[in-house]
Amino acid sequence: KIKYSLIGLVLWLVTGTVIAQNPLIRDQFTADPSARVFGDRVYIYPSHDIPVIPGHGRANWFCMEDYHVFSSLNLTDWKDHGTILTQNRVPWADSTAYSMWAPDCVFRNGKYYFYFPAPPGGISKGKGFRVGVAVANKPTGPFTPQKEPIEGIQGIDPNVFIDDDGQAYIYWAQGNIYAAKLKANMLELASEPVIFDQLPEKGLKEGPYLFKRKDNYYLTYPHVANKTERLEYAMSKSPLGPFSYTGVIMDESASGCWTNHQSIIKFKNQWYLFYHNDDLSPQFDKNRSIRADSLFFNGDGTIRKVLQTLR
Ligand code: FUB
Q1: pTM of the model
Q2: Distances (CA, A) of 49 to 91, 103, 131, 173, 286
């Protein structure tokens, strides 16, 4: 690892090229990477899988009680900034659920807004997932959760996109993919949710991640078209669609990992796809590891399929 890090550092210093080794984080399980460029660093806000503890959430399933954030200047050397939020600090969440699923984080008006799904507690216990927001002055926190989840959202995998005109949008999943405008305070919906029912009808779709390149909006999402999730995308000229299904970004994992979950960023003039696989836990695919690979576009704006690098 040290040898690879040195090669990466030299390459970056000499050519400005950054290379990554997969999986990116090796001392803990990570999944659902939401990568963001803040200043000169890439920050990743992933889910944090932990080995299943009997009595903690559902048996043989995802077990997640907190979030860490990681950052890097070169996509090779990653710093773990530690825990930024735990389920027992979220006033409305069920602290016995261990289901802090895929989050996202955006910067707006000097603050960092961290969006996360969790099952609610109290009288709403057992009623699916809600989406909460925690706010910080720095990308590494400390993040303070709001007292209540966002009104009007029932579901998982929040993703926030801020368009060039300043309008923010939130996307989420509940079997299908939904979206709505956010108010300027980034804490409340500003429009009725729309459902993207133009996407392929059959099979679970989750993990929306929207980005813009030139005048195209790309809605990317994992989709169970066959047995496990593959990464697909749809394009539109508007952030609320309608979106036209366009193609596959990454095929199903050869390892058989049931989930995948993506984010796409441009960093130092290169586009990257962040995703996950089960590299460090091939026997139990609910303990996952985040990865990154370069992503390229065709002349017509479509995305070239990304092949997973070997470890
Ligand atoms: O990490 C838990 C869930 O698995 C996520 O919310 C989904 O996107 C899938 O990756």
Answers
A1: 0.94
A2: 22, 13, 19, 20, 7
Q: Are the beta carbons of 12 and 242 closer than 8 angstroms? A: no
Beta bridge partner(s), residue 31:
47
Check if 287 has its Cβ closer than 6 Å to any atom of ligand 1: no
Q: Is residue 104 within 6 Å of ligand 1 at its C-beta?
A: no
- Measured CA to CA, the distance from residue 306 to residue 212 in angstroms comes to 18
ipTM: 0.98
Element (H, E) at 212: strand 209-213
For 157-213, the pLDDT digits (tens) are 999 999 999 999 999 999 999 999 999 999 999 999 999 998 988 999 999 999 999
Distance 64 CA to ligand 1 centre (A): 11
Count the Cβ atoms, other than its own, within 10 Å of residue 27: 8
Contact 137, 160 (CB under 8 A): no
| Token pair 């999730």 in the structure block, residue | 229
What pairing do the DSSP bridges indicate for beta strands 104-108 and 66-72?
Answer: unpaired
- Does 47 contact ligand 1 (Cβ within 6 A)? yes
Ligand 1 centre distance from Cα of residue 207 (Å): 7
**Cis peptide leading into residue 91 (ω within 30°):** no
Q: Would you give the distance in Å from CA 216 to the centre of its chain?
A: 20
Q: How far away, in angstroms, is 210 Cα from ligand 1 center?
A: 16
pLDDT digits (tens, 9 = 90+) for 146-162: 999 999 999 999 999 99
